[in-house]
Amino acid sequence: MTLLKTLPLAVLLLSACQAKTPEPTATTPVKVEVPIAIAKPVMSWGDLTSRTKPAPTTSVTFGDAETDIVDVWIPQSKGPHPVVIMVHGGCWQKSIADRTLMNYAAEHLRENGMAVWNIEYRGVDEEGGGYPGTFIDVSRAADLLPDYAQKYNLDLNRIAGLGHSAGGHLITWLAGRENLPEGSALYTKPQIDLIGVVNSGGLADLDASEPLTLPGCLTSIKDSLTGLPNRTRADVLAETSSDRLLPMGVIIHSVNGARDTIAPPVLGQQFTAKATEAGDAAYIHIIADEGHVELIAPGSVAFDKQTKILKDMLGVK
């Protein structure tokens, strides 16, 4: 906009009658227009789920329950294929999400040369879910992988994990389950060896997560997830919270969106600090200007970062 267009008409007429326009003095107010920086909106769930949903290569069922299923994604390369065990989030509640929310992420990893073992588990809102069922389901589905290694040409020496949100808690719990207290109802001898895990916007430390995530995501279901304390089990978090199972002896990458309101970045920072102090190789990655959904949305900076982490971890070129 020119100066003439910004001045009132009366001032213009007066100026025309003067021989010379006075120079501005040091006290003359100067209006400076500063552009307002508008951050791009973070992704919504609809931004992800409105995409065409890919389908797995095949599925494995191993029981009568609807949750006794694993979706398998096999690369077109010759193999043997490195494997990513994938665990979905949804605040541990099936009414919020199931394993198919991860189909977009699974297909992207498959296209990048990694097989995906996308497991299901009972949510706290399903019969038998919560403590101990949810944890037993995760172990059982993961430990089934060796039974299908030959059939699907899977490399059991190259297995990593990726868990999003509540799944970040469950994949880190899976990595640390050998440290469960003696006599725990959750303990089974692991049948797989993980190289490392990606804690993607995860709620791995239940006590730290409770006041920072949405109340409906943890506070309202925490007792169901961890079980209630009793005479023989006074400390319920000793079995159920991943930070209590450190050190895990695996590589741990926590990836967080800087604008994530479900799993704020401080949770990844704190968990990384605890893991490092315990002696694990742990790393934190905070992705600027992205939120919770971007973490499992192919094409985002956050998911590209996690794809690279997994490829490097598994030796995929």
User: Can you tell me the CATH topology?
Assistant: Rossmann fold
Helical content band: 25-40%
Which geometry do the CA atoms define? globular
First-residue to last-residue Cα separation? 54 Å
Weakly predicted, low-confidence segments? 1-32
Number of domains: 1
Structural classification = alpha/beta
Rg (CA only): 26 Å
Structural write-up:
This protein is an alpha/beta fold. It has a single domain (57-314), classed as Rossmann fold, CATH 3.40.50. It is 30% helix and 16% strand. The chain has helices at 3-6, 9-17, 45-49, 103-111, 133-143, 149-152, 166-176, 206-209, 222-226, 237-240, 265-278, 301-314, and strands at 58-61, 69-73, 81-87, 115-119, 154-164, 196-200, 251-257, 282-287. An eight-stranded mixed sheet has the order 1-2-4-3-5-6-7-8, with helices on both faces. The protein starts with a helix and ends with a helix. Residues 1-32 have low confidence and may be disordered.
